[in-house]
Amino acid sequence: xxxxALPVSPSATRAAVVQLGKTATKGDxxxxxxxxxxLQDSDGGVRWAAVNAIGxxxxxxxxxxxxxxAQHLDHPDGATRLAVLEALxxxxxxxDSNSVQLLLRCLGDSNAGVRRQAIDLLGRIAVKxxxxxxxxxxxxxxxxxVGLRRAAVDTIGKLAxxxxxxxxxMLIEYFADVDASVRRAAVEALR
Length: 191
Fold this sequence. Notes:
Blueprint: H1 10-23, H2 29-38, H3 44-57, H4 63-70, H5 78-91, H6 97-106, H7 112-125, H8 131-137, H9 146-159, H10 165-173, H11 180-189
Helix pairs in contact: 1-3, 2-3, 3-5, 4-5, 5-7, 6-7, 7-9, 8-9, 9-11
């Protein structure tokens, strides 16, 4: 038996977490609980591996796992918050209002990548015609981050009802965006 006091390197912990994510039975609550504990690790790589493993082991729509992950959306490390959203993307289900609320909360995150991932996920799970979510995304159209503006245009186009004059007018304004990818997204959103 190894003495308890021996330190374990972050790379060894990361490898163990990755292996657990690959070999665990889908939906195993004990494994998910252990992986969630790993989200507290001081090493960002271990936290990222834990979130990815949770995404691999968790079952879509599992409220317990979503709730545990949501507790880490306030983590001080932006990369960890982004990883949590990635894991949530594998667990959330279309039309789940609790998940939509979590994602709307992320729109105010200081990290542009987190905001972009939240917008992309909203486009995937929010119900078409969800005007509240679409309205919450509108301020992102003014963001300095091109990828975020492109995601906002795309998601607003997905959520807005076809033929909505207000949305159409707003998206037409982005035909003149300084970035070509945002202009293309606006054209695609109106198709």
